[in-house]
Batch of 3 targets.
Target 1
Amino acid sequence: MPRAASRRRPRAWALALALILVARPGPAEPPPARSAGEHDAVDGSLLELGERIYHEGLTTPATPVTASVLGDVPVEGGQAACVNCHRRSGLGISEGETGALPTTGRLLFQARKSGHRPRPAYTEETLARAIRTGIDSADRPLEAPMPAYRFSDREMAGLSAYLETLSATVSPGVTDTSIHFATVLTEEVDADRRQAMLDVLETFFNEKNAQSRAEGRRAQRGPFYRDFSNKSFREWRLHRWLLSGAPETWPQQLDDHYRRRPVFALVSGISTRQWQPVHAFCESRGVPCILPNTDLPVTGSEDFYTTYFSEGLTLEAKSIAEHVWRRGGDQQILQVFRPQTAGSVAARALRSALVERGRRAPVDWSISADHEITTSELVERRGSAGANVIVAWLGPADLARLEHLPRGDNPVALYLSSTLLDGEIAEVPAAIQPIGMVAHPYTLPEHLENRFGRVDAWLKSRKIEPRHPRIQAQTFFACMVTGRSLMHIRTFFYRDYFMDSIDHAEGLARISAFYPRPSFGPGQRYLAKGSYLVESRGAGQSALVSKASWVVP
Amino acid sequence: MMRRLFFASLVLGLATFLVSGVPAHAEEEPCPHGHAADDDAGVDDAGVDDAGVEQNARRYTRSVNTYHTPDITLLDQEGREVGLAPLLDGSSPVALNFIFTSCATVCPVMTATFSQMHRALGEDAGGLRTVSITIDPEHDTPRVLQSYAQRFNAKQGWQFLTGDADEILKVQRAFDAYTGNKTNHRPFTLLRNGDSASWVRIDGLASGTELATEYRQLRQDERPRAEGR
């Protein structure tokens, strides 16, 4: 008998072993969708219907969805669009004590056996019941903010089909062992500034890849309870995308780069030209672009994939418009700039800001590249424009030519741009200090040492000279944001989820050294929204006592 | 015997190795409630609990509190300056909540609920002032608040307030609304009868009807006292 027993037991083990082998899923990716490829067969108009419901809260271009929340509160249309809470990735979010659970087809139609709110897999029937009545597949009520929708069967089918498409395919640029990023550099950028950015990026990437915590090994051998988070480790690969020639040729160059090496996201980047072509590329390809070094971003953007530090020079222009209004109402402004420069972009932004608010349009004075500005000319222009506010979108070389402006009967205010002064707001020429106001969307000089300390220490301990502190701090921050968001999404390598997770990196925002009141938020694509207006008199006399007011235009 | 033991331990060892190799994500999901973990302020990310059932049976708790309204000036959705103390501490009854316009969870619900409360009250509103203060002042400028108010068909007289970040922080602290981070906020509503020193605080998500009932109750409870003065 002992012999028989000894034969039986190994057979049982072998069976268990076989089961384990069969049950063992593939490598790092989340499990395949219940119906991979199935929605290809779904009628296109049904998918379109689902997409419209999800994103716009509309069942036809003119018919809002209707629903109620908390039992008696009617909501409709955009107020009740799924994307508001479940976000573009469909993988949900949480704010405070309330969470919007993942609602992608692949996760809904599989059971949640452990963790938050375990439940059986949804079927089409239980999903429809959940969305219409708020009772989940475990017969429990959903979270309170989930509305109960009045959907027809066809609308339900459309929505369900659309949910299957959400975060269904791992984004390009990710392999089992590496994740690819690119950084965009444009050729006109001064070599030293370019290198300042690259030093930070390359050092950050190298350290990430040094695997100081043996991430790669843990991913292979970690205990099962850490397995999932360890599996997300990938080597970070950085590609430089150098763009040359006219900006009109950039889209083609970007496409070529992307075709050669699809990347998961663009990190940082630097250009003195307008960022628009890169922005357009990212939106059309669905490639995240994280915090480039640009003073000329796309402004007023409600796009999804590009996130900026601020609206750059346009933020300064809008802040100046607002400050002028607060100080003296609708005043005539004379603005001076050189054509084809960042200053001319700012001048256009100021004009639009004033016109949009129904205020007097500014008088423009565009001075050609070879013309040297003089005080007498400025006085004459101001007189003929009838302006008592001058906005000079000029750099230090031009400003150094100006002498004391005669005070006259009408006091004149002269507004300057901190960005065009390269942040050196204490260096406003003495002659114009008494009337100068500087739009300064950055941390005040007296607070900068503290705020920059973290980055400064990081740079110095890696023997990187802080030659261009703003570029280096911004680049470091872009790396931090990328790292935190990747950590958060774990193996869910979906670009939409990556962007959604940045929306909630509110705590991280505070470590951005150069921005005094930074914040992230759902759908917000500018980290900083306001600017200081600093009296240059204060700034010039002592960098420690800026007289500044904060303006959020 | 030894061979059997050897074979058993071999298979067991192999099985253990294979089990440990099973990616837990076979049934894993992204943790939507983990975003707060991005917070350097160290906010706990375990906020979402399993109290779904209880929460729905009774989604809110009620308490009576006194608060000191800070003496500050804010801006309404038209960009007009509004003294906060005269607005909140005056003789009109007030319903107050804290929201931010890009909020992806409870704020839209709270805003829609205020509208529903008004509808449910009808004539009983009795000069009720509705005030929503943003906790994201850098983003929620008067213009942004104005379009938010339109999106929710906010009735005439409903004031959406913003202001300097430091002032907004003061208000949040004064009304025990500060949670360190806007995306970590908690839903609550404050109701105050005109000339009363205390506020009824509704923590959680009450429905429009429930808020209306609480408001009627408040008016009823405090009427004799007000009349007796």
Target 2
Amino acid sequence: MTAHPRPPHDEDDDLDLRALYRTLPRAEPGPALDASVRDAAARAAAADRRVQRERRLWHPGWGVAASIVLTACLFLLTDFGDQDVAGLADAPPVDAELARPPQAMSPRAAPPVRPEAPAALRRYAPARQAEQAEPAAPPAPAYRAQPDAAAGAALAPAPDVQADAKTGAAGETDARIAHIRELLQDGRRDAALRALQDLQRDAPGLALPPDLQGLLPPTP
Amino acid sequence: MNITAPWPAAAPPASRCAGAAEGIHSAAMDIPGADDETLMQAYGAGNLAAFDALYARHRAGLYRYILRSTRNPHQADDIFQETWSRVIDARARWQPRARFTTWLLQIAHNLIVDAYRRQPAQAGPQETEAALATLAAAEHEQPEQQLSDFQTRRRLQLAIESLPDEQRHAILLRLEHDLSLEDIADITGAPRETVKSRLRYATQRIREALNA
């Protein structure tokens, strides 16, 4: 028991009573009571140590370190680590001309050309030409989904080349028909027949003029 | 009963060192020389040896104060255990704003008062006789002197037990722990002059009983 200074009051005349009191039986707690109290104290101390150990395991420094590692992993796994994306800030300015949306399709732009008989020959078969006519093409969209300046530039001259080719083929056919007629007028029927057969071989779908159809031998 | 096996002899601290917080986490701290407050802080930091020393110092005096206040061994055991349980529960938040002894006895005193309110203690003759039967007489005393001393101690014990509760608590704190008026006032929650008056009446009644 901790010793304390004597009480400074005027009733210090109880010294004899205190001496007599010390002769009374020195009762003390029993062993079971001592063990019970000490067990409770030991359990509490053990619980404190457990909590302190858990606190040490979950020190805030660990949380900070885990956050840093997680952030680094995310940085490496995402586009932030890509040099191309990471260098966007240093990229040259965007060309306004290239970035401008494309203009509406020019009226000269023709639909894609299907391989077929030249236009000069189709005039001899109007009914068949009507059957092979393409359905009306939908109006060109005002804007293309993706601007492609090179493709747009290549599309413009294409109709002219194809038209020239068709015109050239029709002129050649007309010249060969005129030649066949000239052979017939000269009385050279065999030569005219061979020229006509050559023409049919070169242009299988060609509709012959009525004056030349009789030249061919009847088909079985 | 005298058990001292697991508990070292209570040794009063050399001095109260208010700033002796260093070393309380160390198992190699000077436990025998540390004061009660340092030991309590060390136990709050997880030093079980500090609690052992603290318990060894106060177990006997605390138990006698409770036993002679309640006059009921079973109730005394319960209150004793509950007092230490509260000390254990308060280990982490305890601050040395007051002396540990004062705080410990205050806990016990409040528990005793609560026990009175729930069930007023009645000292039965069997319990009193059982307590008196533990009186040990010195072997060198003569039979006549032994009888005289026995009767004197019995009168003292009966006189203490016959006191009103407030006077009995005050005189027990004074006789058992040598506490000052201020300490007794702190523990019992009574004004200093009230405590002084209680001690005066208690002393007078005991003297009358001894001289009867």
Target 3
Amino acid sequence: MKRRLFWDIFFEKALKAAAWVSVLTLAGIFLMLLINSVRAFETISFAQFFSGTAWNPAAYGEATYGIGAMLFSTFLVTLGAMLIAVPLGIGTAAFLSEIASPRVRNILKPAIEMLAAVPSVVIGFLGIVLVAPALAKLFNLPHGLNALNGAILLAVMALPTLISVMEDAIHAVPKSYKEASYALGANRWETLVRVTLPSCTSGILVAIMLGLGRALGETMTVLMATGNAAAMPHGFFDSVRTITATVAIEMGEVPFRTPHYYSLFACALILFLITLLVNVAAERIAAGYRRKGQ
Amino acid sequence: MKRKIIQMLGLALMITATLLVVAILGVVLFDLSSKGAPSISWAFLTQSPKHGMTEGGILPAIFGTTAVTLLSTLLAMPLGIGCAVYLHEYAPDNTFSRLIRASIRNLAGVPSIVYGLFGVAIFVQFFGMGASVLAAGCTLGLLTLPSIITTTEEALRNVPRLTREGALALGATKWETIRTVVLPSAVPGILTGVILALSRGAGETAPILFTGVAFYTRYLPGSVMDEFMALPYHLYILSTQHHAIEQVRPLAYATALTLIGLVFMLNLTAFWVRAKYQHGKD
Amino acid sequence: MRTGLYFSILILLSACTRRNVETITIKGSDTEVNLVLQLAEAYMDSDLDVSVNITGGGSGVGIAGLLNGNTDVANSSRDINPYELTLAAERGVAVVPFVFAADALAIICHPSVPLDSLILKDLGKIFSGEIQNWQQLGGSNAKVSLYGRQSNSGTFMYFRERVLGKDYDPGIKQMNGNAQIIEAVKADPNAIGYIGFGYLTDESGALRDGIKVIKLAKMKGQNAISPLDKAGIKAGLYPLTRPLYQFTNGEPRGKILAFYEFEKSPFGQSIIAKNGYLPASEAGLANNSRQ
């Protein structure tokens, strides 16, 4: 008995240790971002960082560290991606949940999960070799490496998340709602648009937030396909450089512990906080939704 | 009548949306297979690159990806599964543990480049591992840790309480219950989560970018402290920075196809495990 | 069956691994990466106990790697600057340069751009944004479309130092490497960009089609020279010839020294020439003053 007790306590401690190590390491990420960002702001002014639009650490004259253009580029590409992905996602999710037969659903759902599995480099690669030439021909541009290309690719990456979460939300609408609607004489489309979808608005919102978070954090896809011009974009046909791409490009060229090095951590912190905000918002909406449903 | 027309239009819209999404997957697979398959051969998969990457194969990249991904899973699995087991079986349900779970979920959504930065600052620089398989493996392990914890907890949650209580009623200690009853029934779910994490890790580029991947190595890494080649990075370079971009385009396609083949194989394995688990449940 | 699989994997792996291999890590310049790759491949063919790992990314990556202690050799198409030397001194890194070849920076544009030659000053005005429209140089009314490298590139730094004397036009499209610049210029009718002239020719030595090479003159009134004019370059008439560096931490020893010796050998020099680069002896021939 003593031996069994020993192992019982041993493993409880060991598992606790594993939990602590995991949590501390993950907390360490945030801590490290914070510490290095603080070091960055020892030499870079807040004002310039947040309101300056020129990111030019290797400038001829004085180095400037303004994230304005990058922030705008990030939002531009992400917004474009959402504009493309949300309608497609809702349409597909509604189809899967309400219209499709179980057999069709059993083929389509794994197919969509396959799309989710495609690595971001491969999507970026196809953005260079497939989408860019198509865009260039369609809109008569010299090359198709711009914000629109990035938006399309990010939409492709966010769609699987969007579709699966939305489909769950739509599927969870109680049958009684739909049956009541049919009883009142509505047809399938009217029921879908006026009863089913409105009653899972928060679920759809959650899906959009999660898709948004996915798109915001993408690195390789935007790095390869958006042209990487560091200036402020004027439209979707301009080449842009997002925060993630900037960090990925410049990380290799910075000697450790220089202002430029620390500035990249500040960028990463901003990224971290933005995705945190989006995820927390999603969870808030989801929690409110669950409470309401009960 | 108007309502019927609107319904038909609406249906058409939904079908169009779905077809578009499926078409995207179709285009991805078709383009990669048609342009990549011609360059794939046994030689391609088993040789090193030659002549400035314009000829030869990608064996070091396949090996590098496999090695780093395996290492990262080996590191993340005990930590992740242990953490999940502790959180689900031992930790009291208070604000603190809920906060931990929320933090883990949020960390799953953090951009991979942030993990890459962390890897450079901590593993490469602070721990002095330098750019190596080890540093990259640790970084990638961190990346997959949140998702392993979440999926393991999910699998544990699916083990019925009655099963646990039955074992405890028979006199087993908590750990014995976990070891003999809970974990075995949760294994398929855990395994699915681990394989999916593996497949995600194999396709990631940002975390390995500055923690150990190299453009060209003739030989395979001799130890975990060496640099390595990797499939996603190889694809990235072949399509953006190579000196003969057009010439190596077919090789880039073949690399993409190999990578996606590897990832899909892992995913299909995970699905198979999951399907078998569902079947076993019935 | 299983043991057979394990055995075959082991044999496969051992065919590609060398247990007693010494590794040389080389990182840096995109201009030099292909050349150094060819040199390294030839060198490894002759010496089976060494493995040369090469990564590109730009001269900045190489120098940062040297300062951070994670590379043995830094390829750089520019000299190290005073700030980096200070950092090196702080970290106890002794930066030792070695010029193994030379390069001429080529200015390329789309064939429909109405220019054949430029003086250095005008080239600077184009890339700094002072001249925005081809009309100002006698061409059609079209906005100049600029292509260059990113800040991690030695070529980026060298061009800015030598030609501009100030920052680039902010609208310049920053490409990932020389090859991307060529691809972009080929597709954009108003494009102009700069590349290492080793990239002007393809594998067989023929000039790549789809781009026009601009002749350069140092000052107005002088003869404009093309970077492909070997005699002109040798005579020091082309304004953008530059040395290609490799930096090490401390004097090169062991296999690194052997690699350097290989680069200096006739076989190494022939590889350098075959790839379209200049021998190290012609590195200093450009007039280093700006005007």
